[in-house]
From TrEMBL:
The lineage of its organism: Eukaryota, Viridiplantae, Streptophyta, Embryophyta, Tracheophyta. CDD domains: GT5_Glycogen_synthase_DULL1-like (cd03791). Keywords: Amyloplast, Chloroplast, Coiled coil, Glycosyltransferase, Plastid, Starch biosynthesis, Transferase, Transit peptide. Residues 779-936 form the Glycosyl transferase family domain. It is found in: Plastid, Chloroplast; Plastid, Amyloplast. This is Starch synthase, chloroplastic/amyloplastic. It catalyses: [(1->4)-alpha-D-glucosyl](n) + ADP-alpha-D-glucose = [(1->4)-alpha-D-glucosyl](n+1) + ADP + H(+). Residues 104-190, 217-282, 317-400 form a coiled coil.
Amino acid sequence: MRQRNLSSQHKRQGKKPPPKRIPTSAELQTNSEEESEPETSVPIPNGDVEHMVNHETSYKDDVDTRVDVEHIDEQNLDSLTLPAVTKALALNRDGGEQLSGVQLEDLIGMIKNAERNVLLLNQARVHALEDLHKILSEKESLQGEMNVLEMRLAEADARIKVASQEKIHVELLENQLEKLQNELIQRGDSVKNETELYKNQNKISKEDALLAHDSRVHSLSKEVDSLRTENLALRNDIQALKSMLSNVKNTDERMVSLENERSFLESSLKELESKLSASQQDVSKISTLKVEYKDLWTKVENLQLLMDKATKQADHAISVLQQNQDLRKKVDKLEESLEEANAFKLSSEKMQQYNELMQQKIKLLEERLQKSDQEIHSYVLLYQESVKEFQDTLDSLKEESRKRASNGPVDDMPYEFWSRILLIIDGWALEKKISSNDAKLLREMVWKRDRQIRDAYMACKEKNEREAVSTFLRLTSSQASPGLYVVHIAAEMAPVAKVGGLGDVVTGLGKALQKKGHLVEIVLPKYDCMQYDRIRDLRALDVTVESYFDGKLFQNKVWVGTVEGLPVYFIEPHHPNKFFWRGQYYGEHDDFKRFSFFSRAALELLLQAGKKPDIIHCHDWQTAFVAPLYWDLYAPKGLNSARICFTCHNFEYQGSAPASDLASCGLEVQHLNRPDRMQDNTAHDRINPVKGAIVFSNVVTTVSPTYAQEVRTAEGGRGLHSTLNFHSKKFMGILNGIDTDAWNPATDSFLKVQYSANDLQGKAENKASMRRHLGLSSSDDQQPLVGCITRLVPQKGVHLIRHAIYRTLEMGGQFVLLGSSPVPHIQREFEGIANQFQNHDHIRLILKYDESLSHYIYAASDMFIIPSIFEPCGLTQMIAMRYGSVPIARKTGGLNDSVFDVDDDTIPHQFRNGFTFTTPDEQGVNSALERAFNLYNNDKEFWRQLVQKDMNIDFSWDSSASQYEELYAKSVARARAAAATASRGT
Ligand SMILES: Nc1ncnc2c1ncn2[C@@H]1O[C@H](COP(=O)(O)OP(=O)(O)O)[C@@H](O)[C@H]1O
C-alpha cells in the first residue's frame, strides 16, 4: 500500500519533509479511500514527541499533503487538501490528549491554511458567477446580431430574385428592340424602292401619276406619321429600356455587393456559430463547474463544520498542551525510571530464562553425571581389577627380572635343549613356515638363552606344529611391533565403495590411525560396481583362500591394492551365487548370506595369511558376524592375537534373519540363538547380528556421544537398548571426523575454483558456476542458496526436506537437492517434485549418487539443511562447514554434538556455528530457516565471520582417532594382562 510505503519512508527520512506539491483530486480521492483502512500502530521511539501518536501513518500523509497556499490558482481549486485537513482533524479527535507542542503548531497552521482556502474558494465562486453572467449576456447580444443579419440576408435574397427577373425582362426587351430596328431598316429600304418605282411610272402618266402620287403621299405621310409615333414610342421604350438597363446594371452591382455582404455575413455567421458552440461548451463547463461548485460548497460547509470542531479542539488542545507539557516532564521522568525498570526487568527475565535453562542443563548434566558416575564406577572397578592384574604381572615380571638379573641367561638347560630349539626354528624357516626375519629374531633369542623362548618351547611340547609356530611368532611380533596392528573388515570404503557415512569412517579413521604410526589394513568385498579407477596397483594374488559356507568350501580370489594410501584386500568369492556381482552394494534379497559369507572369508584370509592383528574392527550388521565367528571358530584355530572392536553406525539397520540362516557361515544356531547371545530381543525365532556383535566384541562404539545416549533408551535403541545397557561398560560414543584431505576446498579438484576461509571469492565463483551448470537463475548473486545432500530415507526427515524446498522458495532463496532413495515410493515422490521444478529458476533436484556434484554443492551453497528425525553422527554438516556452508540442523545424535545454534546463550560464542531446531516438524524447520535467511540477508559481515569460523573448525579424524587408539590400547593391555595371568596359572 502506498500509504504504508510512505509511512516507512517517513520512518527512514526523519521528521516533517517540506510540502512539495498539491496532490491531484484523483490522489486526494485515493488518500481518503486509504484513510478508511485500519492503520498499523508503530512502536514509539524514546523521546520523539511526534511519534507519541499511534497514527504515524496518517500523520505522515498530513505532512505530505499540507497545502502550499501561494501556489493555489483557480485551476487548482479541485486540488484542495480537504482529506489532509480532515485527517489532521481526525488525528486531533483521536489523539487530542496526546497532542504535543509541535503537533499543535501544525494543527493551527493547517486550520489557518484551511481558512484561507475557504476564502479563496468563496472568491473563486464569485469569479465563476461573474464569468457566467458575462458569457450569458454576450450570448444574448450575439443572438440579436445574428437575428438582424439573418433578416438582412433574407431581404438580400428577395432582392436578388427580383433583380434576376428584371434582368430576364430586360433581355426580352432588348431582343424586341433589335427586331424593331431591323424592321425599321427594312421599311426604309422599301420606301426608297417605292419612290424609285413611282419616278419610273411617272414617266408613263403624269396625271395619273400626280393623282396617285397625291394619295400615295397622303397615305405615306400617314404611314410615316404613324411610323414616327411608333418610332417615338419605340424611342421612349428604348429610353425606358435603357434606363431599365442602367437600373439592371445598378441592380447587378448591388447584387455583387450584396453577395459579398452575404458571404461576409455567412463567414461571420459561421464564426458566430463556432462562438455559439464554444459558448455552449462553456455553458456545459459552467454547468459542471456549477456541480463541482456545489460539491465544493458542501465540502466547504463540511469543512466549516469541521473547522468549528477543530477550533474547539484547538482551544481544548491549547489547554491540554499546558497539561501535556507538565505531563511530558512527568512522562520523561517516568520513562527514565521505566527504562531503568525495563533494563532491570529484561535482565531479570533473561536471568530467569537463563536460570531455567541452566536448571534444565543442570538437571540434564546431573542425569548424565549420574549415568557417567555409574559408568565411571564400573570402569573404576574394571580398572582396579586390571591394575591389580597389572600389579600381579608387574610383580611376577619383577620377580622374573630379579631372577634373570641375578641368574643372567637361563643356564639351567643343557645346550642340547637350545640346539634342538634352533633346529626347529631353522626347519620352519626352510619349510617357509616362518619368514627369515622371524627366524633370525628367534635365533637371537636362543643364542641369548632367552627365558621367553624356553617357556614357549616348554608350552608347545604338547601342541601340534602349527600351534607351536604361532606361539613362537607371537614372541617376535611382541618384540618388534612399534604400534597397533588394526584390520578393518567392512562393507564400504570411501571413495571406492561408498554408500554413506560408513565408507567415510573406514577410510578417515584408517588414515588417521596410519598417521599415528599404527599398521592398518582393510578387507572389503570385491564388488563389480566399485570405482576401480580410485584403486592403485590393483592385482590378484596367486593364491586362493578357501572358506566354508553352507557345508562346503568355496574358493576366494584375493586382490590387493591401495586406496587413499591404505592397503586393501578385496575378496572375490567363487560362489555360484556371484555374491558381489550384482551391480549394487546393498538391497539384494540374500544380503544376509552375502555378508555372512564375506565375514567368514575375511577371517579365513587373516588366518591363512598368518596375520596377527591386535584389533579386528568390524562395522555395522554386514560384518557383525566377525565377532561371534572369531571367538567361536577362529580364535580356537589360532587367529587369537586380536581384540574385537565393533562400531554400529546406525542401529536402524540390524540385519536380523531367521535363526537357521546363521548356520550357513558355520556358526552354531543352538549355541547362539539365546537371549544373552544373538537372539533378537523382539522376535525369538530370529537372530540379530548387531546384538551378536555387541555381546561378542571387546569394545563396542557408536558414532556420537548423544547417539550413544539415545540408543540406550527404549525409544532410540530399536530393541537393543537393554542389551546396550547390559554391556554399557564396553560401549561408548565417539564422534566421527571427516577426511580433511578428501574434503578440502583449498585443494578440491572437483571444484571450479579452490578457496579457503581467508579467500571466499572462490566460493562465490563456485556458486555462480554451479548455478549456470544446473540452469538456475544467476540474476541475484546475493540470493541465498540452500543445499541438501542425503540418502532419501525416512530417518533423514524427507517430509521436512520437501517442506524446506517450498519454504526456501517462498522466502526468495534457491534450493539444490542431491540424493536418491532406496525406498520406491519416496524416490517416486521426489521424482514428481523434480519434474515440477524441471526448468525452474530457483529449484533443482538431482536424484542420483554423484560424488563430484556433491563437492560442488557443498562449495556453492550458503546454507545446508539436515532436518533428520535421528542422526547417529552425520557427516554432511561437518563437510558443509568445512566448505563454508552454514548448517541448519535438527538437534539429534551427532548433529547435537557438532552443530551449535548462533542464538543459544548457553553455548560459548566460539562454539556457535549454525542453526538448530528441536521438534522435527515444519514449524521447527521454518524457525531455523527463517533465522538463517534473516541473518544472511541483514548482517553480511556477521554471516561472513560465521562462514569463516565454520571453515576453521577442526573436524579432522585426529581427535576421534585418538579416542579409538586409547580404546584399542586399553583393550589390548587388558588382554595381555589376562594372558599373562593365564599363562602363570598353567
Ligand atoms: N546422492 C549422493 N551423492 C553423493 N554423495 C552423497 C549422496 N548422498 C549422500 N552422500 C554422501 O554420503 C555421506 C553421508 O553420510 P552421513 O551424513 O553420515 O549419512 P548416512 O551415512 O546416514 O548416509 C556424505 O559424505 C554425503 O556427501
